[in-house]
Amino acid sequence: MTITRPVSGSIRANALGEEIDLLLVNRRRFLLPALLAAVALSACSARATDAPALNVPVASEAPAAAEDGPAGPATPVGNMSERGNVIKQLGETGGFGPTQDNIAVTFAVDKITVDAKCTAQYAQKSEHGHFVKVDLRAETKSTMPPNMGYGVSGYEFTTVGEDGITEQTLVTGPAFSCLDESEQFPATLNPGSKYRGSIVLDTKNPEGVLVFRPMFMGGAGGWEWAYGR
Predict the structure, then answer these.
(1) What is the maximum alpha-carbon separation in the chain?
(2) Is-contact 102 215, C-beta < 8 A?
(3) What's the Cα-to-Cα distance from 190 to each of 12, 57, 205, rounded to whole Å?
(4) What is the C-alpha to C-alpha distance for residues 229 and 220, in angstroms, rounded to an integer?
(5) Phi, psi (rounded to 5 degrees) for 47
(6) Exposed e or buried b for every residue in 202-219, given b needs 16+ CB within 10 A?
(7) Which stretch of DSSP H or E encloses residue 21?
(8) 8 A C-beta contact, residue 183 and residue 204
(9) Residue 211: beta bridge partners?
């Protein structure tokens, strides 16, 4: 896991006008569970003026990030799955924040490896059948609210098998201890920081769809990637 802090303390706006799919969370809606249903209206792919670019180098073995188009109003781009998630390709960026005009975290999934080899000294075999390693990058703004619980962890991922069944419990002891600590992506993100690392999931599905639905979104929307095909 690599952690650096940007010199400027904020994410630069992309001069080329990259398009970025955004899932947004309203602070009040997060704090008031009674209004979680309303959050779903804004938990979709979005475009914002002066949207931030992900300024974290891609790992050498991962595919280069795809270029995005010009920024626009916060409207769905139409690339949604039947599960209500934004469908992403490897290397494409996504983001979330407290408001439409304040995207606090930009991230990308660069590579998904099925039956990944463990690197920790006391690694164990998969309990569910297959280790799926997810290589991630993320960058946070210096203005990111520290009390929103923004982060990325294995508990926020699920897989959907070829049979259409969603597998939810992907964090096991063997998955947690598969990678050396230096390779692991942190579960908690700090303001004004850059991250690169991996999360290992333990699943019965060697192929299907990987879904990321952040806990702080209250289950209202997320992103997904096809893998193992």
Answers:
(1) 50
(2) no
(3) 17, 18, 32
(4) 27
(5) -120, 145
(6) bbebbebbbbbbbeebbe
(7) strand 21-24
(8) no
(9) 158, 224
Range of the structural domain that residue 167 is part of: 2-227
Number of domains in the chain: 1
- Give the Cα separation of 74 and 65 in Å (integer): 22
Tokens linked to 69: 């188009």
Q: Which helix (H) or strand (E) holds 188?
A: none
Tens digit of pLDDT for each residue in 119-154? 999 999 999 999 999 999 999 999 998 888 788 999
* Residues 6 or more apart whose Cβ sits within 8 Å of residue 117: none
Q: What is the CATH number of the domain that holds 7?
A: 2.60.40.1240
- φ, ψ of residue 182 to 5 degrees: the values are -70, -15
What is the dihedral sign for C-alpha 175, 180, 181, 184?
negative
Q: Rounded to an integer, what distance in angstroms lies between the CA atom of residue 163 and that of residue 155? A: 22
Both structure tokens of 204: 């019965």
2-59 pLDDT tens trace: 444 433 333 333 333 344 444 444 333 333 343 333 333 343 333 333 446 777 777 6
Task: For residue 109, list its beta bridge partners.
Answer: 136
Q: What are phi and psi of 137, to 5 degrees?
A: -130, 150
